[in-house]
Design goal:
It is built from 12 helices and 12 strands. It is 33% helix and 24% strand. It has 323 residues and is of the alpha/beta class. The chain folds into 2 domains: 222 residues, P-loop containing nucleotide triphosphate hydrolases (Rossmann fold, 3-Layer(aba) Sandwich), CATH 3.40.50.300; 81 residues, no CATH class. Strands 6-7-8-3-9-10-12-11 form an 8-stranded mixed beta sheet, sandwiched between helices. A 4-stranded antiparallel beta sheet has the order 2-1-4-5, with helices on one face. The structure holds adenosine-5'-diphosphate (ADP), iron/sulfur cluster (SF4) and magnesium ion (MG). The site of magnesium ion has 3 residues, from helix 1.
């Protein structure tokens, strides 16, 4: 396996809500290797965004409790001060969210917004930052760059706005770019173009990408490896080929079995009977028990990720025995 860039161990997030504590992450374990596009997939509410927010310290400290370990090239991020994290965000790890209009500043030109990444994170002069912003616009395919620099976000289409967001996130050549459902609000042809752009950026800037998605088509299309999440835990990690060809965990099986076979492509995650737990309690055993056809008494015990093949881990090995 290539060198690990990010190692997440037993990452837990408890949220204090008006209805009580929500155990949103219950011990996430995941590795992201250098230069890979790693998919993070699972039903809505399983904790994908929460994982990215915990990595980047984007959770409200007064309403959340974070524990566990997130190592970036061996350096612990959990417990870093806000001052230290400001050097990590943007420079080493950056994020692209689903809806560009929420994240872009409507009152600033595209050029100024991208240039700000360089003045804020790298201490560049405005002139140097604008020159780099121009190059970045060319790299992310926003043409003609000189005219686009002077435009405001509302003057751009949704696809171009998302390219601006990607340019801002990739500006300082972070080691890891987290993309949280970056194409969900775009139409299908634009989605394909944006996915191509991520592949190109990985090649050009040699960064790793954590691609958060509920869409297995995206996993098949651009991911090298994938982690499947359920109820606040990663329950299976495999190569993106292995997840389809040698699916190990009953939850992943249920998801993949209901996708139209021909293209592994489905706009929405298929519905499987039952619903995920509400996570008002910390679960000790397998959270998938109520929905699992293979369950038995041993599933009440903790189910750690264990090796089921080369580069393939699953939190359930029993399904193998039962065929
Ligand atoms: N502001 C919030 N208040 C209460 N619960 C929340 C809040 N944000 C997220 N959650 C809970 O945290 C869990 C994980 O959410 P999230 O990471 O956003 O899911 P995903 O991105 O996989 O759809 C869910 O159970 C959700 O209900
Ligand atoms: S067999 Fe048991 S441990 Fe495996 S997924 Fe089903 S309930 Fe979970
Ligand atoms: Mg989300």
């Amino acid at each position: 396996m290539e060198r690990r860039l990010l190692e997440i161990r037993d990452l837990k997030v408890d949220l204090m809500t008006q209805r009580g504590i929500v155990y949103a992450l219950q011990g996430v374990n995941m590795d992201i290797c250098e230069g890979e596009i790693h998919g993070l997939v699972g039903e809505s509410g399983c904790g994908k965004s929460m994982t990215s927010k915990a990595i980047l310290h984007l959770l409200d400290r007064r309403r959340s409790r974070v524990s566990g370990s997130v190592l970036l090239e061996g350096r612990e991020l959990i417990g870093l001060s806000e001052r230290e994290m400001r050097k990590v965000r943007g420079n080493l790890i950056s994020i692209v969210f689903q809806d560009p209009m929420i994240s872009l500043n409507p009152l600033m030109t595209v050029g100024d917004q991208i240039a700000e990444s360089y003045t804020n994170h790298q201490g560049d002069s405005r002139k140097a930052a604008l020159a780099k912003a121009f190059d970045m616009l060319e790299l992310v395919g926003i043409h003609p760059a000189d005219r686009r620099m002077k435009q405001y976000p509302f003057e751009l289409s949704g696809g171009l706005q998302q390219r601006v967001m990607i340019a801002m996130a990739a500006a300082c050549r972070p080691k890891l770019l987290i993309a949280d459902e970056p194409t969900t609000s775009l139409d299908v042809t634009i989605q394909a173009q944006i996915l191509e752009l991520f592949k190109e950026l990985r090649r050009e800037l040699k960064m790793s990408i954590l691609m958060i998605t509920h869409n297995f088509g995206i996993v098949a299309e651009i991911c090298d490896r994938v982690s499947v999440m359920y109820a606040g835990r990663v329950i299976e990690t495999a190569s993106s080929r292995g997840i389809f060809d040698r699916t190990a965990h009953p939850y992943s099986r249920a998801l993949i079995a209901s996708i139209p076979k021909a293209r592994h492509y489905c706009e929405y995650l298929p519905v499987i009977p039952g619903s995920p737990p509400r996570q008002f309690e910390r679960e000790i055993g397998c959270s998938f028990r109520p929905r699992c056809p293979y369950r038995d008494a041993s599933c009440d015990r903790a189910q750690a990720l264990s090796k089921v093949g080369e580069g393939h881990m699953s939190a359930c090995t029993r399904a193998f025995d039962r065929g």
